[in-house]
Amino acid sequence: QVQLQEPGPGLVKPSETLSLTCSVSGGSISSSSYYWGWIRQPPGKGLDWIGSIYYSGSTYYNPSLRSRVTISVDTSKNQFSLRLNSVTAADTAVYYCVRHLMIGGNEMGAFDFWGQGTMVTVSS
Amino acid sequence: DIQMTQSPSTLSASVGDRVIITCRVSQSINSWLAWYQQKPGKAPNLLIYKASSLESGVPSRFSGSGSGTEFTLTISSLQPDDFATYYCQFYNSYSWTFGQGTKVEIK
User: What are the tens digits of pLDDT across the range A42-79?
Assistant: First the structure.
């Protein structure tokens, strides 16, 4: 059973860079043809897809965040990471790492495994 | 950009009720629609993918239907564990977008 784990809650100052890493257990990022992604949820609000990465390194980003986001994968550590530059209070949210549902090698447009989420607050 | 509208935003229902939540999109997405359940303080849980495919382990009282631009999630007989917020989510051209959510409350 795949498990995803983000780090503990964090505080980031405005204009700085938010960095999160998701550790994957129960399967190898490099040996399985999966997409991995990040989703966030501001307090009391809905879900917002940030971006995703294929195990080979191809990346896909939400157009509204593309200029500030970088997602990368470290197969040696079985982890993938999110960097969000120039943060503001609007980036305060619970951040989830996720795995895309794949069937028969095809991405099925949904997310089947989620981390527990980590709260990131942007404040000076 | 494809626009999505999820309705209602809040729904009051009783145990045993049949509950229907709707998502409409502004252009056809074929069947690339998923449904999730989220409880307070928890990550969302996938219920339905490809509009009508039940994720493994999800009770059969949950069902999804629709294609093109209009989709529904039906809970055939609401159970106490089903009071939660539900989100639809569509996929189109390497972009994944969520609806606004529907909170199912106890009547």
Answer: 999 999 999 999 988 899 999 999 999 999 999 899 99
Residue B5: count other Cβ atoms within 10 Å of its Cβ.
Answer: 12
Query: b or e along B36-66 (b: 16 or more beta carbons within 10 Å of the residue's beta carbon)?
Result: bbbeeeebbbbbbbbbbbbbeebeeebbbeb
Rounded to whole angstroms, how far apart are CA atoms A91 and B46? 25
Q: What is the pLDDT of residues B24-51, one digit of tens each?
A: 999 999 999 999 999 999 999 999 999 9
Residue indicated by tokens 């550790």? A23
In the chain, the amino acid numbered B28 is S
C-beta atoms of A49 and B49 within 8 A: no
Which residue of chain B comes nearest to A106, CA vs CA? B50
% helix, strand, coil for chain B, step of 5? 5, 50, 45
**What would the 3-class secondary structure string for chain A be?**
CCEEECCCCEEECCCCCEEEEEEEECCCCCCCCCEEEEEEECCCCCCEEEEEEECCCCEEECCCCCCCEEEEEECCCCEEEEEECCCCHHHCEEEEEEEEEEECCEEEEEEEEECCCEEEEECC
Distance of CA B26 to the CA centre of its chain: 17
Asked if the Cβ–Cβ distance from B97 to A49 is below 8 Å, we say: yes
Our CA-based measurement puts residue A60 at a distance from the nearest CA of chain B, in whole angstroms, of 6
Do A27 and A2 meet the contact criterion of CB atoms below 8 Å apart? yes
